[in-house]
Design goal:
single chain
């Protein structure tokens, strides 16, 4: 289905959920039940259209989707005011997802630039996108992003709240609830709420190298230190939850005390907050509001499994959404690599969604190319995790591409790759003539040293002498290519 005007009123934006939402709202008006949460429907035993859509995409049953959502182990971020969204799921029983961050800063603000980043993120496979705008035109930029996004959009509401006050100390719960309601009305699908940073945890960061690196966590820490009061998001958590359930906005419970260096990983401050996030998860579930838990950060390889184990235990197996983690701190400019290493491992151990890191992490606001580089790194990490977790069909594309490579079907090999443009350009850099698309070698080995060329002659020998046929994956190649 198509719907309202796009940017500058010139583009029609599809609204695949419009009819589903209209029926749901009509039913709510008839019954007086104003909780539109997917968890609410799942706990009533209902299978929504979103659950059916997800089941087909994930190659699992609608009943499994419903049961996982009802138990809180899977979420479907799908605000009723975001009809442009194509349903997706975040949970350990679904494929490992990735998030891309976009958004302006106080230094630069341009809606067209953010829409380009959104397009790049979705084109290269981001499953969700967070708008982390902190500069001018926050409301307007978010509106354009939502109206153009087929994937769930997340925000950190405290950023906009800070833009409306002169000093951080002037923040209050009334302003936060106002901002949260406005963003929910626009269609934001999930919100990072740093309700687990408590005043009694502030002394625990004193031994850290990098202190508090979460912007939201640091803002609230400053507010608490100034007022000598408890976190107002924690104290008013039920009031926030009541707003979220009206629109089916999912909680992304923020890790405001996440480690910002590997030396700070798994410390008392981080784990104290994680326990509190578990407490808040059960409070949200009392209202059938969906929850995922945000995680680190910077963590050395040997401590990654511990992160997942504790989150599962303390947060009741709510989906784990992690930033990386970065496994070393010495590579500014290459942190999409240092973090993708950790992301693949934490995804294997059970993280449900991985927040990408771009090469610009710690250095500046990412541009369109940085967004692409971060996404490709994280698509690799998430896919590696899915293979390790033996997700249905996860390895099919690998097998298809490998067979295309073995049979020197260069065009199919390019097409099946994560970034066909780059794969093709690297091949053509030295062998650009179309003739070489049929060649049984590349410029690495040349015609005399290609192992697979010789291996194919061994295949012929095995068939002629032993009657052994080489396994044929050409059907899989065609199937995966068509699905793409």
């Amino acid at each position: 289905m198509s719907g309202t005007n796009g940017h500058n009123g010139t583009q029609q934006t599809p609204k695949p959920r419009a009819e589903w939402i209209a029926r749901r709202k009509a039913e709510a008006a008839r019954t007086g039940d104003d909780n539109f949460s997917q968890m609410h429907y799942a706990r009533k035993g209902l299978i929504t259209e979103e659950m059916v859509f997800i089941a087909e995409k994930e190659k699992i049953t609608p009943e499994l989707v419903r049961d996982e959502v009802a138990a809180g182990r899977m979420i479907i971020p799908a605000n009723i005011n975001h009809p442009e969204l194509e349903p997706m799921a975040i949970g350990v029983q679904s494929l490992c997802k990735i998030n891309a961050n976009i958004g302006n800063s106080s230094i630069t603000s341009n809606v067209d630039e953010e829409l380009k980043k959104l397009h790049t993120a979705v084109h290269y496979g981001a499953d969700t996108v967070m708008d982390l705008s902190t500069g001018g035109g926050i409301h307007e930029i978010r509106e354009e992003i939502l109206r153009h996004s087929p994937v769930p959009i997340g925000t950190v509401p405290i950023y906009e709240a800070v833009s409306r006050v002169k000093r951080i100390e002037d923040l209050n719960i009334d302003l936060m609830l106002e901002v949260i309601e406005e963003q929910a009305q626009q269609g934001v699908d999930y919100m990072t709420i740093h309700a687990g940073v408590l005043v009694q945890y502030l002394p625990l960061v004193s031994k850290r190298i990098t202190g508090i690196v979460s912007r939201g966590g640091a803002i609230l820490a400053q507010w608490m230190a100034h007022h000598h009061k408890q976190n107002f998001l924690y104290e008013n958590f039920d009031a926030i939850t009541k707003v979220l359930k009206k629109y089916d906005v999912s909680y992304s419970l923020g890790d405001g005390l996440r480690p910002g260096s590997i030396a700070d990983a798994s410390d008392e401050a981080q784990f104290a907050e994680l326990r509190t996030l578990g407490e808040l998860t059960t409070k949200a579930w009392e209202h059938d509001v969906q929850v995922m838990i945000e995680g680190p950060g910077h963590v050395p390889l040997d401590k990654i499994k511990e992160q997942v184990d504790k989150e599962v235990e303390w947060c009741h197996a709510a989906p784990f959404y992690t930033l990386g983690p970065l496994v070393t701190d010495i590579a500014p400019g290459y942190d999409h690599i240092t973090s993708a290493i950790g992301a693949a491992m934490i995804g294997w151990h059970g993280a449900a969604m991985l927040c990408y890191v771009t090469p610009k992490e710690h250095l500046g606001l990412p541009n369109e190319k940085d967004v692409k580089d971060g996404i490709i790194a994280y698509k690799i990490a998430a896919h590696a995790a899915d293979i390790a977790r033996h997700r249905p069909g996860a390895q099919d594309r690998d097998n298809a591409l490998s067979y295309a490579r073995y049979t020197f079907d260069w065009d199919k090999q390019f097409e099946l790759s994560l970034d066909p443009e780059t794969a093709r350009s690297m091949h053509d850099e030295t062998l650009s003539d179309d003739y070489y698309k049929e060649a049984k070698f590349c410029s690495m080995c040349g015609p005399k040293f290609c192992s697979m060329n010789y291996s194919q002659k061994v295949d012929e020998f095995n068939k002629r002498v032993y009657g052994i046929e080489k396994t044929d994956y050409s059907g899989l190649v065609d199937k995966i290519t068509a699905a793409k």
